[in-house]
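Researcher: Structure for this, please.
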Amino acid sequence: MKKINGIMMQYFEWYMECNQDLWNQVAKEAENLSKLGITSLWLPPAYKGIGGKDEVGYGVYDVYDLGEFDQKGTIKTKYGSKDEYINCITALKQNGIESYADIVLNHKMGADMLQTIPATKVDWGNHNQLIENQEVVRVATKYTFPGRKHKYSDFEWNWTHFDGIDYDENSKQNAIFKFKDKNWDEAVDEEFGNYDYLMGADIDFTNKEVVEECTKWGKWYLETTKVDGFRLDAIKHIPAFFYKDWIQNLRDETGRELFTVGEYWSGDITKLHRYITETEGKISLFDVPLHYNFEAASKDENYDLSKILESTLVKENPSMAVTFVDNHDTQPGQSLQSFVERWFKPAAYSIILLRNEGYPCVFYGDFYGIPHDNIEPLEELKTIMQLRKEKTYGVQHDYFDNPNYIGWTCEGENTHMKSGLAVVISNRFDGEKRMYIGSQHVGEKFIDALGNCEDEIIIDEEGYGNFKVKGKSVSIWVKY
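Model: Predicted structure, token format:
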């Protein structure tokens, strides 16, 4: 499922200014990213959206237009052209890096024509509750893609392929309108009664034509781009059975692993477990509960660090967990803003990068910074990534036994020179932890790779060291 000590990187942030040239930038950076230990890149949505050259990627218009057709005022997407995208994926492969495509199939936006149909308004707080009688609405549901002229697919979308929408051109009203004879999809999150509807024209996954077209498109996308896997957007709004069948169909068709991770945005671990069961373990999930634990720990010095892995996917089902600290939705100004405080980020990244469990994902905004919000790059991050590549081998010993100081060690392996490390995290005061790192290290000197502690630590005759940490920081002890 994941390469040993591999690292995924989310290679975009919401406000990045890439001047329709991101794919070329990725190709140029591929060799350097590989040297850092990155084994896969989660690339942003590559198809044309309602925002044209400024579309981050989630306002989906035409999934067949990868920056090839003059639509929405531009040929290239925000990130570049179709050819540049394919070249970028090739450059990544040549440097041993897999590419994961961001797939957004929940909704469409920017229709080419309006349609007049009966619909019923539902309550924003409870999508199952009808609040007015049926009325005639004029809505953006007809997609003919005139700029593409039926190349790759002659499928045209109309209102029967959707369940509902959030704007009526007749009344100029923003409300959720459920279309005549339609029901919200089942097997979705139960927030708001039924969380099928999220935004735009909501796709009806009980419609046979829709399922056939989405499957056909998935095969086309794989053949065209040669991506290695997927990041699935907004899966709690889509019936679990759809993606279970969709990804299995593509795996059977291609005979490839196609690593796939889904975004089920919930801090409730039971919902993540349920989705994994419903999809028969075919789709890994981002560990949202762990992210929220990081945020809480960063904003409350009384947080009990010994509980930081409690009720998380990486603790309860580590083989299905993609761990992360922040992403494009949690960064400042976004709908799910829950940005981890700067002082705690090195500790959070140590937890996802320097332990055996989970598949860690590094955020572009942490690595390169977020100029839009004057957020500087996290200078410790590159060091922590290098340490994952070089040091995190062998048996792991955990010391999550104190509310203010936690730590762990990896003993290392003979096949990796100078491997092994010890990590100590504090959220209050200076301290130290006596931890076992292995009898093979007796008499060896260890130093703090981050330079937060200047001491040298010598491993005693029993294979233990008294590993120190400064207040509200992390120290990573490695062989000198």
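Researcher: Any notable elements?
Model: The chain has three domains: 7-105+208-390, 108-203, 396-479. The CA atoms of residues 326 and 363 lie 6 Å apart.
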